[in-house]
Amino acid sequence: MLSPSVRSLTFEPVDRVLEFRAGQSVQLTVPTLGGLPMRRPYSFASAPRAALPRRFEIAVTKVDGGPTSTALHALPVGGEVVAEGPNGGWLSRRPDERGLRTLLVATGSGLAPLRALLEEELTSREGARLGLLFGCRTEDDILWRDELSAWQEAHQRLRVAITLSRPGPGWSERVGYVQRHVQELVREIEPELVLVCGLSPMADDVESALRELGVPDDAIRTEAYDR
What we know:
Blueprint: E1 6-11, E2 25-31, E3 37-43, E4 56-61, H1 67-74, E5 82-87, E6 102-107, H2 111-121, E7 130-136, H3 145-154, E8 158-164, E9 174-175, H4 182-189, E10 193-199, H5 200-212, E11 220-225
């Protein structure tokens, strides 16, 4: 469990190596608890790893009444699903974009594909400035918190900014939605590319804020979803 509502699942295909890029997704067909198989896409939450080429990770938010997420949260070790893909790649960076100053904006499990991008990028200590603006409800909802902290400590070019919409009394950092803090990160990173992932209302608001700040449309890529 990454948080009270988000479970990390690592899969290993039994019949092939699933060749994918950070920023892509996989379509899972899941045997639900009611017996009806359900299909749903999930972003790869891990970058391709040379040491473990057959494995990939996803992050699943349990939605009340959601048969697919409920089944995945109940899936035991050794459980099987059908995987098709990889698919998409809207959030993947082209080779010529690897040298661009990049701002990543995410809420909740929308961090998953951006975490994969960071994992891939931070294999190198050298490179362009990177920023991550991550919004959660509470401290308990901060996904991969220790990993993000370790990455920021190890890489001077990475800036991680976390904001909570429902902070507890001991929280002394940013509060409010990510929309409130976009301007700060844009000024600090001066991004040439912005990748946004999360629920549709947040994504729409962040896109509008970025345009008002002068970020050109062709430098903004968004992957939005609904519950």
